[in-house]
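ok new one. same drill as before - structure tokens go in, u give me an amino acid for every spot. 632 of them this time. try not to just spam alanines like last time pls lmao
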């Protein structure tokens, strides 16, 4: 049976994460082990609710079912979440390996930020005579960012020039923060440094763009460096001078440490992986690497990528329109299942969509709340295929994670992504063996769009059901439960539209007035009167079974006859008169007493311009009937 290793991180660091996973998977190729990657796309700029909803995916696995866990800290820079994962691993007695961060009693894999950064600073001073430096940091909680800042400080201290570090600005890893900072410097006309040293390549590229916007040339007027050596920074103009952390080696090291855990040979320690400084155009070193060759290669790939992106967006638009056209939850399930069954080229032959049962229940019952902490005991299977075999069950237990999962065969990488609205969980998605979809941010786009369309569907159907219930209440008579006067007015409008649009349209209106209601109210009270009205209404409904009945006043009812009831209208009027009690104004009245005055009028296209014309004649006929019944 294969082992199971859980990996926790965010997906923003696409390239270094993919390098790490490739190294990890390569090192495990001779072992029987599947990797379960719990991935989200939360940022420090998110609202607390959205951030919570994204990182709720980390609560999905029951770590007692796993043989090891890894936190990829270069992507997961939220201290509270890392602490939570550490706590869960300790409770489950599962070996945990931390990358890019430290916790007491845990093995950590760290990049030699000190050596790599000091090599970078030495290069800037000795080759480019840099004296004034601003450091654009990540967060104060980030081990890597703080180590890089420490390396700058130590190098400058050793060379007795601490004052060369003129400022440190924490960006929270947000590129927009870089723009705001440099915009502020320029607006205040503060002197710029000789170089910006940035905690990663993304911050460095944004610094170059913002400086250029203000008329500064990089590297002509100012130098910029980054960290991570990602593909985007290699083809950026200027190519970013940076530090390669060798994340494939870090992945291999994580696999080695896990194997030591499995053989009880591990010693809790830090593994430090050497880094290397890579000069580039952004520090004025144009001849160190052939950036133009890389750019030409990326240019050839751009056309292919654009075509794939266009096709992919059309795919997501089709999913969107499929879901939003559904009028019920049953339609939603069947239509999306059929859509994915017929075409799942982008998702692959192993793809799963699982929903919280409360997703559907909360649509129909406002008292049912969506979970904000973890996941329920069971998950509803909306769509599930493993190696092309479609799962036919309706639900699985949450700790099983994947319908149809097999703990034998080749090793696989399973990627779990959350579906949610703010902090409310809808469920999750599972992809398999698709590192390329991490690199090109396919998974981010897919998760984001699916979450949005599920949210729109959930809200729209909930609102529609609520409106229908309110409309039903607005149109329903509280006492008799038949339609009320508001509903009858709507019916009259409908009849008027039919009169105008259909020359052959035929209908009749029957008017009813319940006799002796005041007598019963005065003798037995209003409760007796209400019971009498209910009996009378029941008689009308039982006779005119195929016609809508309306209570339009205290003791007045009306029925609109079409179809079968219209054809049998005279027989039905005879029948209701036969079934009712003889008129009597003498007390006591029998317990089952019902007396109703009735009047019927048929629409005559030669004389009637509206439904109200028909209703007026029916009302007149009803009052004639009342007079006749009173005469006895």
């Amino acid at each position: 049976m294969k082992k199971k290793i859980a990996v926790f991180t965010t997906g923003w660091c696409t390239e270094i994460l993919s390098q790490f996973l490739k190294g990890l998977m390569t090192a495990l190729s001779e072992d029987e082990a599947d990797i379960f990657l719990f991935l989200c796309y939360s940022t420090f700029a998110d609202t607390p609710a959205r951030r919570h909803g994204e990182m709720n995916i980390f609560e999905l696995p029951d770590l007692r079912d796993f043989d090891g866990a890894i936190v990829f800290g270069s992507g997961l820079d939220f201290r509270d979440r890392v602490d939570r994962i550490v706590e869960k691993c300790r409770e489950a007695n599962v070996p945990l390996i931390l990358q890019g961060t430290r916790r007491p009693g845990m093995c950590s894999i760290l990049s030699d930020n000190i050596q790599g950064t000091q090599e970078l600073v030495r290069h800037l001073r000795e080759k480019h005579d840099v004296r004034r430096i601003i450091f654009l940091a990540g967060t104060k909680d980030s081990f890597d960012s703080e180590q890089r800042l420490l390396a700058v400080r130590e190098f400058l201290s050793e060379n007795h020039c601490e004052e060369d570090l003129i400022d440190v600005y924490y960006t929270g890893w947000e590129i927009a923060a870089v723009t705001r900072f440099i915009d502020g410097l320029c607006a205040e006309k503060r002197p710029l440094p000789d170089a910006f040293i940035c905690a990663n390549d993304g911050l460095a590229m944004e610094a170059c763009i913002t400086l250029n916007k203000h008329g500064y040339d990089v590297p002509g007027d100012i130098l910029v460096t980054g960290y991570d050596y990602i593909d985007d920074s290699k083809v950026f103009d200027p190519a970013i001078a940076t530090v390669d952390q060798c994340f494939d080696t870090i992945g291999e090291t994580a696999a080695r440490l896990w194997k030591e855990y499995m053989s009880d040979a591990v010693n809790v320690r830090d593994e430090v992986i050497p880094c290397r400084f890579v000069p580039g155009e952004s520090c004025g070193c144009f001849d160190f690497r052939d950036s133009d060759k890389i750019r030409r290669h990326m240019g050839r790939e751009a056309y292919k990528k654009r075509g794939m992106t266009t096709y992919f967006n059309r795919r997501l638009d089709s999913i969107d329109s499929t879901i939003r056209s559904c009028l019920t939850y049953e339609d939603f399930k069947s239509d999306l299942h059929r859509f994915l069954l017929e075409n799942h080229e982008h998702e692959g032959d192993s793809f799963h969509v699982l929903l919280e049962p409360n997703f559907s229940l909360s649509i129909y019952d406002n008292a049912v709340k969506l979970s904000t902490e973890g996941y329920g005991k069971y998950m509803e299977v909306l769509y599930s295929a493993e190696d092309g075999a479609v799962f036919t069950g309706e639900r699985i237990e949450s700790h099983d994670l994947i319908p149809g999962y097999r703990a034998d065969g080749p090793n696989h990488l399973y990627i779990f992504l959350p579906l949610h609205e703010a902090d409310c969980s809808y469920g999750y998605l599972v992809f398999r063996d698709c590192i390329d979809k991490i690199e090109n941010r396919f998974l981010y786009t897919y998760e984001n769009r699916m979450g949005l369309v599920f949210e729109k569907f959930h809200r729209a159907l909930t609102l529609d059901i609520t409106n229908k219930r309110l409309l039903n209440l607005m149109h329903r008579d509280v006492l008799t439960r038949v339609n009320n006067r508001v509903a009858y007015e709507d019916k009259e409008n409908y009849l008027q539209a039919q009169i105008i649009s259909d020359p052959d349209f035929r209908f009749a209106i029957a008017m009813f007035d319940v006799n002796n209601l005041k007598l019963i109210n005065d003798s037995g009270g209003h409760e007796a009167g209400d019971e009498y009205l209910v009996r009378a209404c029941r008689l009308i409904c039982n006779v005119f079974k195929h016609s809508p009945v309306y209570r339009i006043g205290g003791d007045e009812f009306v029925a609109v006859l079409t179809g079968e009831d219209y054809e049998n209208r005279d027989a039905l009027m005879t029948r209701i008169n036969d079934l009712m009690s003889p008129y009597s104004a003498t007390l006591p009245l029998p317990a089952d007493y019902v007396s109703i005055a009735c009047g019927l009028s048929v629409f005559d296209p030669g004389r009637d311009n509206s439904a109200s014309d028909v209703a007026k004649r029916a009302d007149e006929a009803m009052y004639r009937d009342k007079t006749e019944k009173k005469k006895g």
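The domain at 111-246+271-293 is CATH 3.40.50.2300 (Rossmann fold). and btw The chain has a mean pLDDT of 92.
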